[in-house]
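S.,

As promised, the shikimate-3-phosphate run. Input:
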Amino acid sequence: MTVVERVRVHPGTLAGTVRVPGDKSLSHRALMLGALVGERVEVTGLAPSGDVAATAGALRTMGATVELALDAAGGLSGHVRGPLREPDDVLDCGNSGTSLRLLAGIAAGLDGVSVLTGDASLRRRPVDRIRRPLEAMGARIDARAGATVPPLVVRGGALRGIRYDSPVASAQVKSCVLLAGLAADGPTTVASPLRSRDHTERMLEHLGLPVASVTTEDGREEVTVTPGPLRAAPLAVTGDPSSGAFWMVAGALGDDAVSVTDLNANPTRFGVVATLLELGADVTLTQRGPRTGEPVADVRVAASELAGGVLAGVGVVDALDELPILALAGARSRDGLEVRDAAELRVKESDRIASLAAAFRALGMAFEERDDGYLVPGGQRPGPGTVDAAGDHRIAMTAAIAATVATGPVEITGFGAVSSSYPSFLDDLAALGGRVEVLASRT
Ligand code: S3P
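Predicted complex:
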């Protein structure tokens, strides 16, 4: 497969309808939970992306059969079959934090040693957040740099059910502990300061295992899983709202409209739609029937006069991966966008506050970095320039959408990072009328 590394995108309104790859969060969980069932489980619509390939590869190394092929809609479909056992090699999670954190939870319940690692970006991302609860459950964990960053060594086996109070509202931490909890001797509860995406809980329910979940009045979330059998049921994955978000913002900032069909519309993932509505965007939602326990919708966003606003608290968690592209919406709004309570952005595929600041400045726009977020003044238009993706797919795609509303062409280096979530991004950009020049690629 050819991976585009350097690209030039020219200004011009995007318009039309697009269907994005399968949801990355759901794709990982379909493979992992499917492998825990112990029988053949059909999976459909998975993202054909680097991150999902990393999970599939790791599960094979853990003894699972994973057969996937491109389907007519461009997704990956096939089946997965456990059981899992001690891996016979290192688990390479590539660029994918979700693979590493969730697989570590599964590895903690397996007899033997698992070693998990990834690319340079992943090897900078914290694992102490999962080390503490897994140790409390009885696993032995080690990692580099004072047990804080990968490679991560998990010595798994018999686990105790625990109650864990997570200091961060992270679905990866919650899911890691719940997955370990499936192999424990009793119930496991994860309490978090705010609710986070609940795909693991919904998919476990879909596979026949009840999960108890409460959100208290002050917004705290408590989720309890009790070990029990999982039944084989097909797992269908719908479009990734985090990928769709780029086209939604393009629709709002252009002078026509963009529709994104068949998106996962789980409210814990739809903060981008809520934020666009709050900014005053012209959004039309069409609900489709639920699939695999998840709501599904089409979203149409037409040219909009955006006012501006502030995003904080649970609104940030619901739009976590969309904060880069929302920054562009903020720049094009009247009053700008302020984001608070988003310190987690510092430990994503890049330090997204720093890399967004660099990208915005490279295009001649003001961007105020905060420890836990950003302030983007409104009334700004990107100029021509060169943006480095900083190894981060969402920075690369944000720069590409910025180019469509810029006063001149934007070059993006390190564009290959996009393949971790959305390898067909440039095809979809071109299909919506985007003007793209490929400057360098590798095979
Ligand atoms: C994810 C959870 C989020 C998100 C990531 C995918 C998941 O991370 O940023 O892209 O699939 O659970 P945290 O919940 O750890 O912040």
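The chain has a mean pLDDT of 98. Residues 46 and 76 are 5 Å apart (CA to CA).

- D.
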